[in-house]
Amino acid sequence: MWIENTQYDFSYLRGYKQPASVLIAVGGGKGGVGKSFFSSSLALLLAHRGFDTILADLDLGAANLHTYLGEKIEGKGINEYLLNPGLRFEEVIRPTPYANLRFVSGASEGHNISGLTQPQRSRLMSALFNTPADFVVMDLSAGAHDTTLDFFLMANRKVLVMTPEPSSMENAYSFMKAVFYRKLKRHEAQLGLTDQLAQLMAQRQELGIRTPADLLQWVALKEPRGGAQLKHFMQALKFEIVLNQTRSMHDNELGPSVKAVCKKYFGTPCELLGHLDYDNAVWQALRKRRPLLIDYPQSRLYSQLFAISKEFANVPFKRAVV
């Protein structure tokens, strides 16, 4: 995969060294892997711990995050914000019945995430980047649309949810590869490596460049200074893996394998946050429009989610500096 002629707008970063909250992006290579379940559960647990938390549904066109909270589609959401330039983002953030948790809905007719214009994308990214809270959990759309990749890359914590199924793992790898090259494209002109990277990709068969990690090694060989800087930038791309719907010890053991493959192929840090057991209580709670964490607090799944939320809550977070 190679991204050509990509334009980037970083205006949402102006005046800020860091976002006004810890941004957590939850992505996945395909639908049905449990992104929305994990996003809503993580947000609920962080709020339960006392953190001011915002949960944002960015799966525009197929938004259903409200059902995991037992909420109805009402009031203004992201589509209204995108259609009305005069609407402030605070006006689409609404309270929930759960202490410390606020919600931004994407569930109304209007936009598909792949169809956002560049000004709309930049405006929404700016709003999310600059909205003060302790945590903003962003539930992203499935697949690797440019907009989805940009939301994923802007986050402090980049979580990838997958299941033990071969198709899910293949799609997750494709998603990570797309994220890698999207980030690479951001820095190539800045480091004066555009021509060098294009030449290497044109010769990838002869040079044996089969993985993103191979590409980084060749850049460092051809351009030692620029290659070292590029490697430094790419090291900031840290994937955090959640293996969902595991049913056996064999499934659980796939987590460390995914971590090892990630480091080998991308040459970037990769951590396994944990695995989540398959549990019929998930769809039972969804049918009742009640969060699983509320109805099944004694379940093993609750304990697993609680342990993962602890990984986020225990890491010091920094406020933005204007």
Q: How would you characterize the overall build of this protein?
A:
There is one protein chain. The chain is α/β, with parallel strands linked by helices and 322 residues long. The chain has a domain at 18-162 and 279-313: Rossmann fold (3-Layer(aba) Sandwich), CATH 3.40.50. It has 15 helices and eight strands. The chain has an eight-stranded mixed β-sheet, with helices on both faces. Helix 1 (35-48) crosses helix 15 and helix 9 (212-222) packs antiparallel against helix 10. Residues 1-16 and 317-322 have low confidence and may be disordered.
Principal-axis shape = globular
The strand order across the widest sheet is: 3-4-2-5-1-6-7-8
Distance between the termini: 37 Å
Provide mean pLDDT, rounded: 84
- The CATH class of the domain at 18-162 and 279-313 is identified as Alpha Beta
CATH superfamily of the domain at 18-162 and 279-313: P-loop containing nucleotide triphosphate hydrolases
Major sheet characteristics? 8 strands, mixed
Helix content: 40-55%
Strand content: 5-15%
The helix/strand order is EHEHHEEHEHEHHHHHEHHEHHH
Named at the architecture level, the CATH assignment of the domain at 18-162 and 279-313 is 3-Layer(aba) Sandwich
**CATH fold group of the domain at 18-162 and 279-313:** Rossmann fold
CA radius of gyration is 20 Å
Multimeric state: single chain
By secondary-structure content and strand pairing, the structural class works out as: alpha/beta
Q: With helices defined by DSSP (H or I, 4 residues minimum), what is the helix count?
A: 15
Total strands: 8
Uncertain segments are 1-16, 317-322
